[in-house]
Specification:
Length: 381
């Protein structure tokens, strides 16, 4: 081989290296664009539910992954409560894992909070996926979500391809993704806490009237789509002024809190309960029939009546509830949710007034709120 041939060979090798570098740059540019798109989406979301759903969906699709999961530390059970209130029970989302503590994650990531990349290891991956890849040599990338000295959780990626995530792989893009998601998660959690604090009655711990007024339209639309009934319960503590006068206002506050907790304990997580004002509470329940709403109301009344409440000096405090019930049937509805919300509340309030007039400590139904007939071209039907 002469010098010219050697030079041509070297040039071909260099060209091959250059082509590989150019291809690598192109691939990195594609990755960067994907990351930026995902990051912009994350930064635009305002609710915890949206952030979780969009992160899981987009991460899987954008990076063509076989499995994605999001593990979040929920030591105070706040995340579960937030998601259930937003209609997303965590147990129904296969890619979401709520952890009671951060200890397992801390062991996986170590003091420096570095991502884990490599093959499946039960001590790292076992508790972070509800469904694990089937390939025995699947590769994983576990990204810590760490913010202001607090480990919030981890974003967990898995591929059936053993070479997808290797120990020696650069983690610049993954580090950036975890940092952005950590900021978004912290901001969203702070926003959710602030929003809920403004919608919580501080004395009883249940939601306040502002929350109820915001929520009732959503509940009406939900039952319209689902075809079930929506029941409104108006609940009032009988002779509450007498309790305050006899036992003192501090004891009256205690009674309000105990009654609120008693009502809440007999409702489902997705039912709405709020303190409407003074000694009045209001609840919204999705039910199958008016009779079912009456059954729930009667259970609440009996629970409060049988509660063993005593004052600080040991005297028993008799507490009773009057409850008005109105039930809404969604089929063939013609009006808007504001109109029917006002009607539903008004009927429940009238039923409560009847319960008071009939001697208190009882449940009275206003009957079924049926739809007004839709107007057709030929008139009404």
């Amino acid at each position: 081989m002469n010098c010219l041939d050697e030079l041509n060979t070297e040039l071909r090798v260099l060209q091959s290296h250059l082509d590989n570098l150019i291809d690598c740059v192109r691939q990195n540019d594609i990755k960067l664009h994907r990351f930026q798109t995902l990051e912009m989406t994350m930064l635009s979301l305002n609710s915890l539910r949206e952030l979780i759903e969009q992160t899981l969906q987009d991460t899987r699709q954008v990076f063509e992954l076989d499995h994605v999961s999001l593990a979040l530390v929920d030591d105070k059970k706040e995340l579960r409560k937030f998601l259930e209130e937003d209609g997303l029970p965590p147990d129904q989302l296969a890619e979401l894992v709520l952890l009671e503590s951060a200890s397992a994650l801390e062991k996986s990531f170590g003091r420096l909070m570095r991502p884990y990349l490599g093959p499946f290891r039960r001590e790292h991956c076992g508790s972070l996926f509800k469904r694990l890849p089937t390939h025995p040599d699947a590769s994983f990338a576990l990204l810590p979500l760490y913010r202001r000295g607090r480990l919030l959780g981890s974003l967990n990626l898995a591929s059936e391809n053993p070479a997808r995530f290797g120990v020696s792989m650069a983690t610049d893009f993954l580090d950036r993704l975890s940092a952005v998601l950590s900021v978004c998660l912290e901001n969203t959690l702070n926003f959710e806490l602030l929003r809920r604090t403004s919608l919580i009655d501080p004395l009883t711990g249940v939601n306040n009237r502002r929350f109820f007024d915001q929520r009732i339209g959503e509940e009406i639309n939900r039952v319209l789509r689902g075809g079930s009934c929506l029941a409104c319960l108006f609940l009032d503590i009988d002779h509450f002024k007498r309790i305050n006068d006899t036992f003192g206002h501090q004891t009256g506050d205690l009674v309000l809190g105990e009654v609120a907790r008693g009502i809440r304990s007999l409702l489902r997580n997705n039912d709405v309960l709020a303190r409407y004002g003074g000694e009045e509470f209001i609840a919204l329940l999705e039910v199958s029939s008016e009779d079912k709403a009456m059954e729930v109301a009667e259970r609440i009344r009996l629970h409060v009546e049988r509660a063993d409440l005593t004052s600080r000096d040991g005297r028993r405090i008799p507490v009773h509830l009057s409850i008005g019930v109105a039930t809404m049937e969604p089929s063939q509805w013609a009006g808007d949710e504001k109109t029917y919300a006002a009607k539903l509340i008004d009927l429940a309030d009238r039923a409560l007034y009847l319960a008071k007039g009939r001697g208190r400590n009882r449940v009275v139904s206003a009957g079924l709120l049926r739809p007004e007939p839709r107007k057709t071209a030929a008139g009404t039907r």
